[in-house]
Amino acid sequence: MTQERTGVAAFKGNPITLVGPELKAGDSAPDFTVSKNLLEEATLGDYAGKIKLISVVPSLDTGVCDAQTRRFNSEAAELGDDVVILTISTDLPFAQARWCGAAGIDRVITLSDHKEAAFGQAYGVLIKEFRLDMRSIFVIDKNDKLTYVEYLGEMSEHPNYEAAIAAVKELL
């Protein structure tokens, strides 16, 4: 049975239900399968040996998600080759590619959780009511241990960018 968490998050003040476990720093990062594009998939193992910052957004075509992805794209240049920044949303891969081209995003890798919401369920961020992934941040070390986890309580708020970047820098 899939775990559901109600009352831990909201959208514009209205409670939403998150599907999946609540992960914590120190936990092993769950594997996942998402889409790189229409034909290719990606898993956690594809980024083995890298420090991973996973920025989860409901949809790139919204203001906060746009700003969040742009912010991590600009931060990526300062973090070096040992770090990969993944932005995961339930947007279709076509929409992600279009958005990245229009926004000039060239350092963040966008991945789509649209097919099975496997990432959302594994990381406890799938919003049952909308079938979107809840805004959140995960930092995973080179050994696939979570070192930083931020679940947002309100879908329309920004994450703590500084804390997430500091968590990555501690691993360098």
UniProtKB/TrEMBL annotation:
<comment type="function">
    <text>Thiol-specific peroxidase that catalyzes the reduction of hydrogen peroxide and organic hydroperoxides to water and alcohols, respectively. Plays a role in cell protection against oxidative stress by detoxifying peroxides.</text>
</comment>
<dbReference type="Pfam" id="PF08534">
    <property type="entry name" value="Redoxin"/>
</dbReference>
<keyword id="KW-0575">Peroxidase</keyword>
<dbReference type="InterPro" id="IPR013766">
    <property type="entry name" value="Thioredoxin_domain"/>
</dbReference>
<feature type="domain" description="Thioredoxin">
    <location>
        <begin position="23"/>
        <end position="172"/>
    </location>
</feature>
<comment type="similarity">
    <text>Belongs to the peroxiredoxin family. Tpx subfamily.</text>
</comment>
<dbReference type="InterPro" id="IPR013740">
    <property type="entry name" value="Redoxin"/>
</dbReference>
<dbReference type="InterPro" id="IPR036249">
    <property type="entry name" value="Thioredoxin-like_sf"/>
</dbReference>
<dbReference type="InterPro" id="IPR002065">
    <property type="entry name" value="TPX"/>
</dbReference>
<keyword id="KW-0049">Antioxidant</keyword>
<feature type="active site" description="Cysteine sulfenic acid (-SOH) intermediate">
    <location>
        <position position="65"/>
    </location>
</feature>
<comment type="subunit">
    <text>Homodimer.</text>
</comment>
<dbReference type="InterPro" id="IPR050455">
    <property type="entry name" value="Tpx_Peroxidase_subfamily"/>
</dbReference>
<keyword id="KW-1015">Disulfide bond</keyword>
<dbReference type="InterPro" id="IPR018219">
    <property type="entry name" value="Tpx_CS"/>
</dbReference>
<dbReference type="GO" id="GO:0008379">
    <property type="term" value="F:thioredoxin peroxidase activity"/>
</dbReference>
<keyword id="KW-0676">Redox-active center</keyword>
<keyword id="KW-0560">Oxidoreductase</keyword>
<protein>
    <recommendedName>
        <fullName>Thiol peroxidase</fullName>
        <ecNumber>1.11.1.24</ecNumber>
    </recommendedName>
</protein>
